[in-house]
Amino acid sequence: MTTGATTVPERDTPSRRERLRSNLRSNLRADLPASLVVFLVAVPLSLGIAVASDAPLTAGLIAAAVGGLVAGALGGSPLQVSGPAAGLTVVVADLVGRFGWGVTCAITVAAGLLQVLFGLTRTGRAALAISPAVVHGMLAGIGVTIVLGQLHVVLGGEQQDDAIAGVLELPGQLISLHGPATTLGLAVIAILLIWPRLPRSLPGWVRGIPAPLLAVVLVTAAAGLFAMPVERVEIGGSLLEAITPPVLPDGRWGAFAVGVLTIAIIASVESLLSAVAVDRMHAGARSDLDRELIGQGAGNTLSGLLGGLPITGVIVRSSTNVATGAKSRASAILHGVWIVVFSVALLGLVQQIPMAVLAGLLVVIGARLVKLAHMRELHRHGELPVYVVTILGVVVADLLTGVIAGLALALLLVLRRVVWASIEVQEPAAADADDRGEHPWHVVVEGALCFPSIPRLARRLGQVPAGAPVVVDLVTDYLDHAAYDHLAEWIERHERGGGHVRVDEVGSMGLLDRRAASSGGPGARRPGPVPRFLSPWAMWQAGHEATGGGHGGHGHALDAGDDPDDPILTGLREYHRRAAGLVAPYLSDLADGQSPYALFLTCSDSRVVPNVLTSSGPGDLFTVRNVGNLAPVGTGADASVGASVEYALDALEVPTLVVCGHSGCGAMTAALHGTGGNGVLGRWLDGADESIDRWRAGHPVAVSAAARGASDVDQLAMVNVAVQLDRLARHPAVARALADGRVRLVGLYFDIATARMSVLDGARFVPASRDRLGAGAAGTPGDPATAAFPAAPTPDPV
């Protein structure tokens, strides 16, 4: 309300407060049980990761608590749960061995501050540019290292820090006598493997018990019940006593900086990848990756200051959080609260856990970091070598070496794909005869044909016999000058020796680009990477005459056409060669009938291609074409359009009737200037008289077009679209369909010079690229001349 000039803000209405309370209660009902389940999963995992990292066990609990309380509250992924992660165990163990625990905590603090800087400078998405093959290979290498180190503990020996030594000593460990520790470790592994495969007939609450918690509790209880003489966890004080400040190194600052950068990058990448994966598991709010980096950095800073392990977003806990129905970040925060309560009040229970139990848990965790699904996916994309090299580097050397080796190989593979072409020579088949009756050899070149490929190109071309007919299939996206010169010279030599060469070029960076550059001058507009189904024949069926006499000073052009005098047959062969197999499945589905979306009435002009302009395919448009896109729907000589309309409405039940005009229309020019003659064409163009009369009377569409500088012919072409829509609306079949709401009328205009489409919206044509059209774009049956496409829906926020 207002008092004088002062405005008093109104308080929240009761209904709004009630909605807020209702949402909080609803979220809490889901987040509270989810947080308890995540807590039960996090505790044994955190202890096991601390063991694998050669860190104090309390460091794992501190990191888990900070990950929930700080990263959960400040991070940008609402359902991600953070804590100590297996992906950093090898790095942390190496740092502890070289610097000690206090300096490792300082490295964690500095890495956290660096992560905050990453987030503030909005580099979150940049981290996703790292090859997934390297990331998955890094995690798999860490998993192999964990398994090789902890398997010795399961078998009753000591943890191995060197992977190679662990492999060499494993046979002796297997044949030696094993004590109760082995029984406990193998029991944990068995439970973890069997529990997820329980039959679905069991009650949901049974199957919902976290396997790590069940394995640790059951096996620890059995060890206590039978009083097994095994090594147990030693905490060495309370959680508060375990809080230790970080210590700066007394030298080796270069190694310190490398450790900071390594922790920051690995923690950031793992957190971001986990956040993206979690987003795919639910339909709620998406992650803010830059904010997630800030939250992770703040968590690592505090964890290091308190003496905790580095933290990341952890996919195991996060997926558990989503699977148990969490609705908001409150679940992650509450799980941190439960860890604090447990660590303060129940820490004595932790000291009852045998070390072999945690070792068995770590063996399974490490093994699950090596995923066959990742290998299969990377193999399909040709990136399995990057994965393998990264694993070997991490296992044999160290994590940084493995990551650098993987990145280097990934960059080399990318470079190879960019500059390396696939070149194959195919001998002629008996049934493969061309239009000359010859059996040509095929040279297929795919990819980027650059100078590094010239030796292989020369070797492959040398396999073609002298005088043989040859088809060179250039499926290239780049053709450099050296490769072009070599290919042109070979063609010239081969044809001098009596052979015939035809170059079938599919790419856009070879013959076509050079022809445009040589004929158009420095300011010429070069063709882009346009596929053949969008290109006119002249652009890819160019023979010697079309190339302007040759390129590169050789006086010879790459002959790209089958027969310049028969482009239709050449086009048909191209269709069967490249497109028929792709379109066949769609045509097979349409073999028994059609159900097009629209009748599309347009001009016969060869520059207007309806399926290209509407991005449509077989079965989408019922196309009717005539000179001037006229709709005389009466009887006699003009009955063809009316028959098509009735068939489209009654037999095909199309919901849309489209009339499309275009710029520079020859029919409108002839009708306006009376040059159609007295024959059939002149009588046909009489159908445009109404359009001319309404244009001269100042039709609103003409006024709008004139204001934008359109020529008289183009103004008439636009008015003609509106008039033909009127004529269609007066047809009895269309009038009935409009009255019943079964059809709408749409007016389109194609500007050939700019390749842009416009839609009739009220009294003007507006760009079809607009997200929304005006009020006249609703396709109102009562005003067919102003009907157009309906407004596009507002896109969902990302």
From TrEMBL:
Where is the protein found, in the record's own terms?
Membrane
State what protein this is by name.
Answer: carbonic anhydrase
What enzyme class is recorded for this protein?
lyase
Q: Compositional bias (Low complexity) at which positions?
A: 775-791
Which PANTHER family does this one have? SULFATE TRANSPORTER
Membrane topology of the entry: Multi-pass membrane protein
Native source organism of the sequence: Actinomycetospora chibensis
Q: Which family does it belong to?
A: Belongs to the beta-class carbonic anhydrase family.
User: Gene3D superfamilies under this entry?
Assistant: Carbonic anhydrase
Entry function: Catalyzes the reversible hydration of carbon dioxide to form bicarbonate.
